[in-house]
Each structure stands twice: as structure tokens, then as C-alpha cells.
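Render Protoheme IX farnesyltransferase in 3D.
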Amino acid sequence: MAYVERSEIDPSIDAEEPLGSVGDFFALLKPRVMSLVIFTALTGMVMAPAGVHPILAVAALIAIAVGAGASGALNMWYDADIDKVMRRTRGRPVAAGRMAPGDALAFGAMLSVASVTFLGLATNWLAAGLLAFTIFFYAVVYTMWLKRWTPQNIVIGGAAGALPPVIGWAAVTGTVSIESLVLFAIIFLWTPPHFWALSLYKTEDYRRAGVPMLPVVAGAAATRRQILAYSVVMALAAMAPFVLGFAGIAYAVIAGVSGIAFVGLALRVYRSEANPAGERAARDLFAFSILYLFVLFAVLLVEALGFGGGLA
């Protein structure tokens, strides 16, 4: 079902051509998202069995970070109409009218080409191809299609955010392995409960913008059930690195304890109602989910460095 067309909410994104500041161009990169991309990609690189020269590792991380920034810029260019409606996003450069849409598009396109080309030349073309696919999937498949047409937008679109450790692994080894795919699966399964927790207390924002997030389409109760289900599966999947032998006992303990805490918070959300207490439960889960993913990958990174993998 066609839920919202790009031009339905605001057919014009400021006719004038404002010049964005350096800060606006930096904001287009979505630096907070970029930091997570860099961290998970670095983990994939360090965990890879082959060594890589530190200079090449830095070059690869820069290329992956720039590719993530390109995705963010293209997203803000296309989504300016709905960003203007949502309180959470209306301060973004294009939505706020501080930057011309064409400048954001050109910036994102230029960074896309540059990042993929640079990664291919610095490491290998498998990693570059995966980066190109990630940019395309986020900017085109997710932003232009899934986000506006289906409540499963976050589920399917989560593949883009889950690929950085696979790209990092491929940059070092030139291959994709079961280990990198397990890292992908953890982030992929983490994405729905993370964003659905946010959407529970931002439902009116999404409804006003016409974005078919799960709480808008299926209701809060169905969303809470889905959050709990995904949280359980994610917590179990997070034990796979230890079970498959590429993570140690420290990871197993931390993943187990934090997984139980994550499921506990998801259960609290499941049992809550659409009231201030329920909103607080959703906010708590959203905040903890960020810490959870960071801790998991931090332990994997520390263990990999201790086991002698990664940088040569």
C-alpha cells in the first residue's frame, strides 16, 4: 500500500538556495551514526585472522566512515519533506532550510563515489562492493522505498546498518566469513527493538509525517510484542561468537548478563501501557540498547587485540 508520497506533506523545500555552513555539512554525515559504523567496522577488521598494516586500516576506516556519511547526506536530501514535520529531525540542515537540497544531494553523491573508489584502491574490491551496496541499500531501498511504504522498514532496512563489520572483515581478508556474518546478525537483530523502542515514544511524530512505523500501523501493543520477541532472539544470537569459538569467556559472561538485562527491559516495555510509565520504559530500553551494542563490540575488540588478531 502506498502510505506516503514524498511531495504530499510539503511540496516545496524552500525555493531559495541557502549556503550551508561547515557545521551543516558535517551534520549531513550523521556523526553519531558514523561513530557506531566506525566502531563496528574496526571490530570486524581486528577480529579478522589476517593482519593489515595500520595505515591501510586507517584508510579503510576513513573510507567506510565517509561512505556512512554519504548515506546520511542522501537520506537527509530525500527525507527533507518528512524531516520538516518531525520534531526529532526538523533541525536537520535541509529540513531547516539552511542548505539547498541539491547541495546535499551533490555532497552525498560525491562522497559515495569517493569512498567506494578509495576503499577499493586501498584494500580490495569486495570490500568496496559491499560498501557500495550498503550506501545504495540505505539511500535507495530503505530511504526511498521501505521507510515510506512498509512497517517492516526497520527490519529490512537494518541490513545496511549491520554490514560495517562485514566490510571491515572483507577489507582485511578479501572474503566474507561465518564470523563476520554472525556480527552482522547481532546488529541486524538489535536494530528492530532499538528503533521500535524509540518509535513507541515518538509515535505521534511518525504519524504526523505519514511514516508507517510499526506503532502507527499495528499499534503499541503489537510493537511491544515484537520488541520482546526480537530481544530474546538477539540475546541468544549474541552468544554465537562464544559458542562458535571466536570469542572468549569474558565475552560470554558480559553478553549473557547484558542480554538478560536487555530482555528484562523489553519485558518491562511489553508489560507497560501507553502512559508516562510506558514511555519511560521505552526510553530506558532505547538508551540501554545503545550501551548494549557498544559493550558487546568493545569486548570483542579487546579480546581480538589480546588474541593477536587484526592490525599487523
